[in-house]
Amino acid sequence: MPSSRTLLAAATLAMASTASVAQAANEVNIYSYRQAFLIQPLLEEFSKDTGIQVNLVTGGNGLLERLEHEGRNSPADILLTAEIGPLYDATEKGLVSAVQSDELNASIPQHYRDPEGRWFGLTARSRIVYASKDRVVEGELTRYEDLADPKWKGRICTRSGKHTYNLSLIASVVAHHDEAYAEQWLEGVKANLARKPQGNDRSQVKAVMEGVCDLALGNSYYFGKMLTNDKQPEQKEWAQSVNLVFPNQADRGAHMNISGAAVTQHAPNRDNAIKLIEFLASEKAQTIYAEANSEFPVRPGTPNSALIDEYMGNFKGDEINLNELGPLRTVASRLVDKVGFDN
Ligand SMILES: [Fe+2]
């Protein structure tokens, strides 16, 4: 005999399928690398405003492969990512389609969207240096380039060089110099590591607090996430042990990355998909979306959260178009192997 839970699930499924047939034109389906809690409140707001039902599929890995495998039959209308990497890969594989939207072009600065409209950045973050308050004098480190300076020998912590965040940063060094320079730089940084690359961004800041290293690479939003972490209050101490360094303020600016969205190649609800991305780039959504993860809004003129204003309000970000970094990520990955960065 089926349990009541099974019956309930079956009933819900029946209702859902009836609804989806009846409202086929009034829904939009998202494949999201972003965690649900970061976007759910906004999606509800969108549904309330427009009557369009949003169906969200989240997953850490494999969404691109799923999209590719499903091909024309994919229900996905929007690919939502937490970084430029998968957006760029999806674009290269022809899994997403160009969108011409005056609204999106006006809302999102040029360097945060594809020149052909195949992807759009929706929130921004910088890859910064977390520097020990006790052991690094303010102003002592000012450029990514200086991380290769022997004065930092045995004093730097980072996660794997192969992680997508680091690949984008290394790609930006290739873009602003050249491959040969980047290789030498990466070798220099490797020589300065306090330990074999490991863990995630937050655990590097922990290592700074513990005295394992003095400088750590990490995305800027982790500072906010640590500083306000009531569930794991020890993370507040990690955050309080460091100063934030936004590198290259006197030249190109700190390396920037985005979370973003693209409309899929075979989107069954293409118009709704565009509407939703326009909503996420709107004034109303931008503050909430950025604040949910301590990120920066991409829309010019959108106020920052109080936390961002207090700790990272004014800095210069690199304005290179992230499309330029796309192909260089492969070069970066090769260099990481070549110098044995993770060994
Ligand atoms: Fe992250």
TrEMBL record:
InterPro entries: Ferric-bd
Pfam families assigned to the protein according to its UniProt record, in alphabetical order: SBP_bac_6
Signal peptide (residue range): 1-24
Coiled coil regions, renumbered to chain: none
Domain of life according to the entry: Bacteria
Keyword annotations from UniProtKB, A to Z: Signal
Entry similarity comment: Belongs to the bacterial solute-binding protein 1 family.
Stated name of the protein: Fe(3+) ABC transporter substrate-binding protein
Species this chain originates from: Marinobacterium rhizophilum
